[in-house]
Specification:
Keywords: Heme, Iron, Membrane, Metal-binding, Monooxygenase, Oxidoreductase, Transmembrane, Transmembrane helix. This is Cytochrome P450. Pfam families: p450 (PF00067). InterPro entries: Cyt_P450 (IPR001128), Cyt_P450_CS (IPR017972), Cyt_P450_E_grp-I (IPR002401), Cyt_P450_sf (IPR036396), Cytochrome_P450_monoxygenase (IPR050121). Its cofactor is heme. By secondary structure, the protein is α+β, with helices and mostly antiparallel strands. About 50% of the residues lie in helices and about 10% in strands. The chain contains 24 helices and 16 strands. The chain has a five-stranded mixed beta sheet. A hairpin with a 2-residue loop joins strand 8 and strand 9. Helix 11 packs across helix 14 and helix 14 packs across helix 15. It is globular. It starts with a helix and ends in a 10-residue tail after the last strand.
Amino acid sequence: MVPLIVTTVALLPLIYFVSLYRRLQENIQAVKASGLPYVILPVSALNRFWLITCQLWLPLLRKLPSSWTKNRIEFLDANWMWHLGHKPFRDLNTDFFVTVSPGSIHAFTCDAEVISQIVWRRNDFPKPLEIYGMLNIYGRNVITTEGLLWRQHRKITSPPFTEKNNALVWAESLSQAQAMLRSWVGKDGKGDMTVKDLPGDNMRLSLHVISRAGFGVKMAWPGQEGRDAGIAEGAEMSSAEIPEGHTLSYRDALESLLHNILWVLLMPRWLLRNSPLKVHRQSYSAYTEWGEYMRQLSEKKKAEVRTGGSGGGLDLLGSLIRGAGIIGDTPDGGTKKKRSGITQLLTDEEIMGNSFAFILAGHETAANTLHYSILSLALNLSAQRRLQQDLDRHFGDRPIGSWDYETDFPALFGSMPGAVMNETLRCFPPVISIPKRAARDQSQTLNFQGTKVVLPGGCKVSLGAVAAHQNPKYWPGNDLLEFRPERWFVDPTSVKEADALKNNMVEEDVEDTEDISGPRGSVIAASLFRPPRGAYIPFSEGYRACLGRRFAQAEIMAVLAVLFRQYSVELAVDGWASDEAVDMMPAGGVERRKVWEKAAKEAKWMISEGSGTFITLKVRAGKVPVRWTRRGEERFNFDV
């Protein structure tokens, strides 16, 4: 008996590896039938165990002979699409290929035509909901649903995203940007101090904008006092005070929740609550506290809606409740309304889930784009000067209080501010790879370069935003790895570039055939270069494109205009020279340039190698310090 048990145990590894080999062969056969180039891997980069332990194994694998690992090992790093961009596609001489492992078939593409086909065939290529399930921490939402349920969420969540409401976002962004700038330049406005937490301040600004514009809670910057620091008109809650029954203020609960979001998303609530680690207990407290605040706001908003009132403004929460329809509470805690004999239902948990989705998506995209824009302009002084010149030409001496969304936003969007934003989103798309999946019930056929290719049912598909944004087939210039906003201004005197512009024109707005979310179309201004559909996807494209893209664009344009109207941003060189030492160096001289280049080298490494992705792309390895100085008083005023 004992020998039998020992033999069985000894054979288990062999049985396991034979099983893996058979599954690998089955997947290879399925991929061969696709007609696409493929790369064989020992494990999927998205395998959960591999994700947790890959940093232990990758250094060892990189020591193996290159003949064993060439064109393979890079695909075992889950962040390869950010670090390598278009290079693997170029090395394989294709813009559409498949990786195959025992547990996965995964297609990757940066071909604009293929991307466009996939995003417009929503039923054939749905979202892989298992990836997004962690975002259901308060309830299902428009991000984490598919099929008919998604259609219901989309119809309910899309109405408030109108041009009229984007004007409110613009106005709040102007106000918040001025407050943020004052915190950077001091009371005297000199700005001779180092800003050490640029990403944190950008996150705070975006949180303030979405909280005020979307939920009626005005959040204050340090030093602000009085009514402006707490209760917004129409809201019955202060963001700074701790009301009875709470242990955190609204502001602290929200900021702590988003700061510790990784723990909340990945760990069970009971473990967070009972963990011996303080950070876990703080995460749980923030999760419960903000949830309670939102329940209170929701109950007040329900009462307002029942009496026919309106909170005014963007009012995302009110829109969710009105979209669900209110007659009274249903047995399951939801709300319902009859429309043409159809009962539409949105539970309280789903209202909460969508509120959280708005907060998460509404601050991450804009905040990270602003952060990368500022750092890129600090490294590209000539682009910064051209941005300021365009702001001067447009605004002249007009005070910020007179700036108007309807007239000023389009003008900025079609000039250097818009080019800076678009180039930042090209170089640093919020989501580096948009996940899809071929519908499980049958294989899916696509047209790739005039040939039909077939993806097996259930195949994972990644739309490579970074790679598409670096694909030379679609973009002018041979420096696509560089931040150069000027590439968006096509020279009409150049026959080649004029033809490219003509060929790449798309309609400004295209109605959804299913009328789910209203006008759709290009996110590029008519006066700027337009890549083909599918070649520029910072907000995705098709039916699942970002609802709040214009919200984010209005915020980014407003903030860039406020910051650079009267000030310049420079890299802080505190680590290499004191203020006194810099002042002693000749302006524009070799010594200053050398000091700046040391700071620039570290900043470039932080931006490229130090950036990574969890939900969205951001600088994760550290912080790049900067300084704001009045225009004309820059310390490093030379072309780079």
